[in-house]
Structures are given as structure tokens and as C-alpha cells.
Amino acid sequence: MNKKIEVKNLHFSYSKEEEILKGINLQLDNRSTAIIGQNGAGKTTFVKLLKGLLKPSEGDVLIEGINTKEATVANLSSKIGLVFQNPNDQIFKNKVIDEVMFGALNIGQSREESYKNSMDALKTVGLEHLEHSNPYDLSLSERKLISIASIVSMNTDIIIFDEPTIAQDYEGREKIKNIILKLREKNKLVITIIHDMDFVAECFERVVVFAQGKMLMDGTTRDVFSREEELKKAYLEAPHITKFCKKLGFSETFLTVREFVEYKKSIS
Fold first, then answer.
1. Closest by alpha carbon to 200, among 161, 250, 143?
2. Domain architecture of the chain: domains with CATH
3. Coil/strand/helix, residue 2
4. Angle at CA 121, nearest 5°, toward 120 and 122?
5. CB 210 within 8 A of CB 216
6. What is the layout of strands, in order, in the sheet containing 80-83?
């Protein structure tokens, strides 16, 4: 698989007293990837380094061959998009369509192209009927979907979601899951930093575990969630269905309820 992101001996410190990231080496390809770890593990700092919002203290981050040390955030915007955890930190226009078109126009799309891409993105999140609404009149869940649409409309090869399921009810969560699956089908690299292990199991092919500024594990989702002792070292738990099936005595690692039901059908 093509390497979309290469991270080489990455170190980062906000101050001389404390090093946040301590020699991360990682290659990210097209596989959807969840970066998990306790608060303070370095996940958010890592994502800011990928986006170019921070520069490495030591080492290199290459986004599709571009070294972030030599690029501005604007240069990287056509390559990598970031959906903020809180949509209120991202939204600033008074009309939904203007908000969704803003990023696309900023990276050089024509008005015609950005409008088409923005309407397609709004259809993807199921909010095309709100094209002329004021985002501030909408629910937090809807604003989250609009912030996702504004990044999807830019058509970047890499999209990062920061805690995508926060403030989402079941319907909103399912919408975001379907958006991620559609982006995967389009060969986009989808990355998330997240605490929702059930959502990770449902949507992501690869899991990277951070602990105390280092990379503790990197593997397929099934592989990582089968390693109970190592998860404990990072103060993490497997998805609910995975833990439940282990308690029932199954040796297999099940990631979703549907997967477990299909297994039971196959052996009955």
C-alpha cells in the first residue's frame, strides 16, 4: 500500500521540562486508523503535528512526501483535513452552504466545483435540506455533521476526526459511521483520535495505541483488542462485546454484536 504519512523518530516538547512525544516511528497507508490512549498519552499533539499546526522538536513528518517542517498549514490543507472535536471551534459562517464551501474555496476550487462538492458533502451527512440555514440555529449534533461536511467537501486524501462520536445520539453516531465507511470506499485515509472503543471496532481497520508519549501497540483492530494485558498497561479496555464474549468463555475476539451473532448462527 502507498504510504500517505511517514513519521520518523518524532519528538515533541512544549517546554524543556517535559517531552510529550518520545521517538514515534509510524507509517500510515489507506487503512482507516484509530489512535487510542488515555488523556495525556500524546494523541492530540500527534494529530496537530500531522496537520502542521505544530512542528517537530526532532524527527520528521511527511504528508504524501511533503515534510511538514517545510510546509505551511495552508500548503497542507489540500492534503489533510481535520474535523475538530467541538464544531463550535470550527464553524464561523452564518449560512450552512457558505461554511461548507469555505475550505474548498480556500484550497483553490472554483465556486462551481466547491458548490457541487459542498452539496455532495451535505448529502453525505444528510443535511442538504439545511443549505440556507444558520449553523447556530441547529443542534450540536447537526453542527458536528456540518463541520464534517466542510472537510469532506475539500476532497483531501487524508481526513482526521477528533472524537467524532461526542455529543451524538444513536442516529448521529450511525450517520458518522456511514460517512467514515463511504470515505474508506473512496480510498481516503481516515484517522481518528477517540475514546469510544465500540466505535473503533465498528469502523476502523487498524489501531495504534499511545501511552506516555510512546507507541505501545500497532496492529489490526482485532489483534490489538485481543491483547488484554497490553491494553491494561495503557489503561484501556476492549469494546463491550469483546469483553462480554471473553467472560462467556469464548477464545475468539469478536468486535461487533453482529459478528458474534453470525458466528453463533454458523455453529448452531
1. 161
2. 1-79+156-236 (3.40.50.300), 93-155 (no CATH), 238-268 (no CATH)
3. coil
4. 90
5. yes
6. 80-83, 158-162, 189-193, 33-36, 206-211, 214-220
What distance in Å separates the CA atoms of residue 231 and residue 207, rounded to the nearest whole number? 12
Helix (H) or strand (E) holding 246: helix 240-247
The pLDDT tens digits of the residues spanning 9-33 come to: 999 999 888 899 999 999 999 999 9
Asked if 210 contacts 42 with a C-beta cutoff of 8 angstroms, the reply is yes
Q: Please tell me the number of Cα atoms within 13 Å of 261 on its side-chain side.
A: 3
pLDDT confidence band for 166 (50 / 70 / 90) = confident
> pTM for the complete prediction?
0.93
3-state DSSP assignment of residue 209:
strand
Phi/psi zone of residue 65: left (φ > 0), alpha (ψ -120 to 50 degrees), beta? left
pLDDT at 37 over 80: yes
How far is it, in rounded angstroms, from Cα 41 to Cα 150?
29
Residue 194 grid cell: 477517540
CA 187 – CA 130 distance, rounded (Å): 28
For residues 57 and 14, give the distance between their C-alpha atoms in angstroms, rounded to a whole number: 9
C-alpha cell recorded at residue 36: 487510542
